[in-house]
Amino acid sequence: MPSIKFFEEELKYMQIFEALTSARTRDCVMDHDRGRILFLVEKGDMGLAIGKNGSNIKRINKLLGKNVEIVEAAEDPEGLIRNSLLPAQVQAVKLSKTVDGKIIAYVTVNPKDKGIAIGKNGNKIARARIFAKRHFNIDDVIIR
């Protein structure tokens, strides 16, 4: 697994997130291009992170003035990619190495869920690519 370096801003947001939700965070990514903050929470902490009827997400969005998105951590790349693309139904994740050494994750989704997996303006697939790269050194995630 690659080593992740946090900037002061990300550490600050992780502390705020944990204080407000009691969910344990594993990662925080400032996605400035898409105007959002991505949090990776420990397995089993999604309920705490979201809160009743999404109350924690709404509070954090308002407090930070940015969209907050949460993904549940997984110990393997397939699980993390599946979690990143929820609620799309992922049928399979296959990792493949190219001749130049890049690792590509090919994700098969239910055909009716392809749009959900990609997300509005490609937000979901971008989120999957960010976390797959940061945590498992996967160069690209392709939906088919």
Describe the structure.
The protein has 144 residues and is an alpha/beta fold. The protein has two domains: 8-72, K homology (KH) domain (GMP Synthetase, Chain A, domain 3); 77-143, K homology (KH) domain (GMP Synthetase, Chain A, domain 3, 2-Layer Sandwich), CATH 3.30.300.20. It has six helices and six strands, in the order αββααβαββααβ. The chain has helices at 8-21, 46-50, 55-64, 77-85, 114-118, 123-136, and strands at residues 25-31, 36-41, 67-72, 90-97, 103-109, 140-143. The strands form two sheets. The protein has a three-stranded mixed sheet, with helices on both faces. Strands 4-5-6 form a three-stranded mixed sheet. Strand 1 and strand 2 form a beta hairpin. Helix 4 (77-85) packs antiparallel against helix 6 (123-136). The longest helix has 14 residues, at 8-21. The radius of gyration is 15 Å and the shape is globular.
- Name the quaternary structure: single chain
Helix fraction, binned, reads 25-40%
Shape: globular
Q: N-to-C terminal Cα separation, in Å?
A: 26 Å
Low-confidence spans: pLDDT under 50, at least 5 residues?
Answer: none
- Considering the protein shown, what is the CATH homologous superfamily of the largest domain? K homology (KH) domain
How many strands, which pairing sense, and closed or not: the largest β-sheet? 3 strands, mixed
CATH A-level architecture of the largest domain: 2-Layer Sandwich
SSE-based structural type: alpha/beta
**How many separate domains?**
2
Rg, rounded, reads 15 Å
Give the rounded overall mean pLDDT. Answer: 95
User: Proportion of β residues?
Assistant: 25-35%
Number of helices: 6
CATH C-level name of the largest domain: Alpha Beta
CATH topology group of the largest domain: GMP Synthetase, Chain A, domain 3
Number of strands: 6
Spatial strand sequence of the major β-sheet: 1-2-3
Would you list the SSEs in sequence order as H and E? Answer: HEEHHEHEEHHE
